[in-house]
Amino acid sequence: DKGGWSSFMAKEVAEQPDAVANTLRGRIVDDAVVVPELAAFGDEALAGIRRIVIIACGTAAYAGMTAQYAIEKWARVPVTVELSHEFRYRDPVITDDTLVISISQSGETMDTLMAVKYAREAGARVISICNTQGATIPRESDAVVYTHAGPEVAVASTKAFVAQITALYLFGLHLARVRGSLSVEEQAEQVRELVAIPAKIATVLESSATVAQLAHWMADTRAVLFLGRHVGFPIAMEGALKLKELAYIHAEGFAAGELKHGPIALIEPGQPVFVVVPSPRGSATLHPKVVSNIQEIRARGARVIAIAEEGDAAVLPFADEVVRIPLAAPLFEPLLAVVPLQIFAMELSIAKGLDVDQPRNLAKSVTVE
Ligand code: M6R
C-alpha cells in the first residue's frame, strides 16, 4: 500500500526519519550503545577481533563503505569493504580473528549469501545486518542486527540504506565500548549525534522541492558526475547508482581527490556535477580542498550543484545551485547528504516518464549469482 504516495519510492524516502529512529530503538542505554544481539554474540569475542571485512552488493556496499570510516575511527580495528561476488572468488585471507559483517536489505542476495557461507567455512564468524526478519542470510550467520526500516518495496534502496548505516554505527560504537577505544564522553557525543539524525533528515525532506525542480530542468541530461571526499565519497557513488538505475542516465561517482588523476578530462561546458561538500567546521582540512575542486571544474564550464552545510558561504561564489543540509558532525553527514541525491534521481525518473518503483532490467532482490 502506497499510503497516498505517488510511488513506493516516494513513500520510502519520506519514511527515512522513522527508519533511523526505529533502528536506534532499544539499543542505547544511558548515552552508550548496547546492542543486545551483539552482547549475545559475546563482548569478549568482539574485543578480540583483529580485522573486519564487510561484504555486500550495490547500495548495501556503499553503506558499508560509509561506515568503514566510523568503525575504524571509533574502534581502531582495520576494516575493509568488498563486493560479495569479488570477495568469494579471490581466495581471501580469513583468520579466526577476522569478523565478517554482511549487509543485505533483503537477506536473500545470492552473491552475499554465498560469500557468508564461504567466510564461515573458512573459519570467520559472521554478523549480518539485515532488514528482513527470518531471511536466509541471517539464518546462515552467527548473529544478526536487524535494521528496522520496515518493508522496502521500490527496487531502488533508500530507507534501508540509512538504516544500514545506523546499524553499522551502532555496531561501531558497541565495539568501541567493549574495546575501550572511546571515552564515555566521546561515546555520549556520538550517541547524541545519532539520536539527532531523524529530525535532521526530516528537515532535508522539507526542502526537497528545490532538488525536484532541478531534476525537472535536467530531464535531457545525458551524463551526471558526482564528487565526494571522505564519507562523501561513497555518497557520491550512491548518488550515481540511484541515477543510473532510476533515470537510465550515465552517472559516475568519484573521490574528489581523484579529479586530477583522470576524471577532470570529462568536464566540458554544461556538464552537471554534484559535489558533496564536507563541513567547514568539522572537516577544516578537507573543506577548502573540495571548494578548490569546485573552482577547478567550474573554470572548465561544469554546472555545479553543491550539497553543503547550512551557512557554508565558501561554496556560494562557485556553485550554480546549493542544496543545504543541517549541521552534523562529519561522520553523520552522509545520512543527510544522500537524501537530496535520492530525490534528484527519483524526480528525474518521473520527469522522463519512467517507472520509479520498477526500473527496467532490475529485480528487488537478486537471488541468482
Ligand atoms: O537486498 P540487498 O541489500 O542485498 O541488495 C543489494 C543490492 O542488490 C541493492 O542494494 C541494489 O543495488 C539496489 N537496487 C540499489 O538501489
Model description:
Keywords: Aminotransferase, Cytoplasm, Glutamine amidotransferase, Repeat, Transferase. It is an enzyme of class 2 (transferase). Residues 42-181, 214-359 form the SIS domain. The radius of gyration is 20 Å and the shape is globular. The model has no long low-confidence stretch (mean pLDDT 96). 45% of the residues lie in helices and 17% in strands. It has 369 residues and is an alpha/beta fold. Strands 4-3-5-6-7 form a five-stranded parallel sheet, sandwiched between helices. The protein starts with 7 loop residues before the first helix and ends in an 18-residue tail after the last helix. Bound molecules: 5-amino-5-deoxy-1-O-phosphono-D-mannitol.
Rounded Rg: 20 Å
Order of helices and strands: HHEEHHEHEHEHEHEHHHEHEEHEEH
Strand line-up in the sheet with most strands: 4-3-5-6-7
Amount of beta strand: 15-25%
Helix content estimate: 40-55%
Biggest pleated sheet: 5 strands, parallel
Poorly predicted runs: none
List the bound ligands: 5-amino-5-deoxy-1-O-phosphono-D-mannitol
Question: Counting H and I runs of at least 4 residues, what is the number of helices?
Answer: 14
Overall mean pLDDT score?
Answer: 96
| CA-CA gap between termini | 30 Å
Number of strands: 12
Class by SSE composition: alpha/beta
| General form | globular
Subcellular location: Cytoplasm
Function: Catalyzes the first step in hexosamine metabolism, converting fructose-6P into glucosamine-6P using glutamine as a nitrogen source.
GO cellular component, one term: cytosol
GO molecular function, one term: carbohydrate derivative binding
